[in-house]
Each structure stands twice: as C-alpha cells, then as structure tokens.
Amino acid sequence: MSVQCVRVDREAGEETRQRLAEADLVEDGYDIVVEDGWLYIPVTDPAAVPGEFDVVARDLPVRETQTMPGDLVDFTASYERIGDVIVVDEDDPERAAALADALMASDLPVRTVLNRASKIKGETRVRDWEILAGDGTEAVHREYGCEFAIDLAAVYFSPRLATERHRVVEQVEAGERAFDMFAGVGPFVVPFAKRGAECVGCDVNEAAIEYLRENAERNGVTDRITAIQGDVRDVASDYSDWADRLVMNLPHSADEFLDTAVSLAGEDCLIHYYDIQHEDDLFGPGERAIREAAEPEYEVSVETRHPVRSYAPHEQNVVLDVRLTR
Q1: 11 close to 144: Cβ distance less than 8 angstroms
Q2: Can you give the pTM of this predicted structure?
Q3: How much is the pLDDT for 1?
C-alpha cells in the first residue's frame, strides 16, 4: 500500500526515526523499509515533517502488531534509548519497577534498564545510576554512521545532542585542524576525523579519553585523532595558534576557558560555543564574553545564534558559532 514516507540515508536512519517519533509523526501501522542504502520511515502527517527531510510515496507492508512499553503500563512510558540500554527518570520506586518490567517485556531490543539516581555532578559530569533490570552500564551508541562505546556511569554522554552534533559535523572539511576542548568519548572529533580533519580531543576524565581512543579505533580514524587526558588549560601551549575549529561544549562554565580558546585559535578559527542562559538574554552573555577574550587581537563575527534544546524552565541550552579572524 502506498504510504507517505521520509526517505533518509540509512546511516542517519535511527536518529531521524527518533526525531520523528518525538514529534509523534511515525506511522506505526507500517514497517520501516531499507532499500539501496535508503531508509523509508512512514509518517502520519507529511505536512508536519520538517522541511530538511525528503518525503516520498512508497509501498510499505502493513506492520504486524508489536508490544511496546506503553501497552503494558497505565501511565505514559517515558524513556531514552542508548544502544540496547534504556534510561528512565522515575522517582517513584513502584512506577520505576513497573516501567522496567514493561521495557524488558516489550519488543524493543533492551539489555539493561537504568534509572537516573542523581543529577550530573563533579568535574567529570557523571551521575549515579540505579540498575532496574539487566546488568552493567556500558552501551554502544550509533549516530550518523559512527559507533560510540560508552560507560554511562563513568563518562558524560547525551544522545539528545545528536542533531546538533551533526549540524556542526556537516561544516567540517578535509584538512581542517579541529580541537575539542571537552571531548568526552569523541562524539564531535570522531565524525570530524571521518570527514578528513586532523583532530585533538582533550578531557579531564581519564575514562572518557580511554573510550575516545577506543571509538577512534572502532571508526577507523586513529591516525587523525590525538586524545589527551588532562585540563585543556595545561596542554594548550602545545597547540598555540593551531586550530581552525574549536568545540567548547561545557555549557555551565565554558566562559572560564575562553582565554585558552583564544590561545588555541589560528589565523581564522570558528568556535562552537555552548551556553545555558535565561530566555530573556539567550546569546548576549556568551557573545560579550567571547568579544572580551578575543578582541582586539581578533575580529569577532557571530555566524550562528541557535537554541539547541530546553534545559530548565525559562532556560535554554544554546550555541554560538563565532568566527575569529586575526
């Protein structure tokens, strides 16, 4: 039967499916089909699909009934998938247990269910977890053709930033020199390197750097990534005037590292600066801080002001793409 579908490259299929599902646009009555490197995702309302996606008509088989977690509980089943690990955020122990049972009994590919047991904390930005079902906190996350091994108890990682990371990755050209000042397990530098960039990833978290090295190997880019464990302020002198591109994804305190960023910047450097600010002035504080650190040595030009996601009531996680030209 002919159905309206989003046609997307297979490598971006899971991220696209998640985005469409979050907008309640996936038509569950039909199977998702893969053919000739394309994924065809049936949609409920073609007019509501974001313009960046290609919508086509396609014959799809009617889906046999699947058991989903929401079918097995009497409340809204809210969860996040990272590979075959499912993350939930439930304060009520009975509700958490019921949701974990439903997830394990569903047709989703689930190995472990984790419940958030603390906020993100400490210099390494990790949190505590309660294992509700299964065992272990390791996962393998796939994102736009890259594969990332992660231990959620040892490193910081957010799959919700996949679309934003891809936006940045698509700007990278072969031969660039890119420095991620807070690199984590490599979700920026690994795809940068796959596009031909020479990359340095730095992080204070020793476990994150170990995973970054593993992920570089998993994705075949070990020759283009240098992974450094330590505070970027302590190693920046080795890369003075080096970077064509800088990633500063440390939203609560990136401003404290702007002097270091300026020292790393080459003659012409694009900084991706992530911030969390009140809705009354989302971009002003970051832009002012960058100008204070970089001017007059550099001409400062803001190329993009972009809200990434809601962080808290009246607060947004935002990004500034800022070009420094000496």
Answers
A1: yes
A2: 0.80
A3: 66
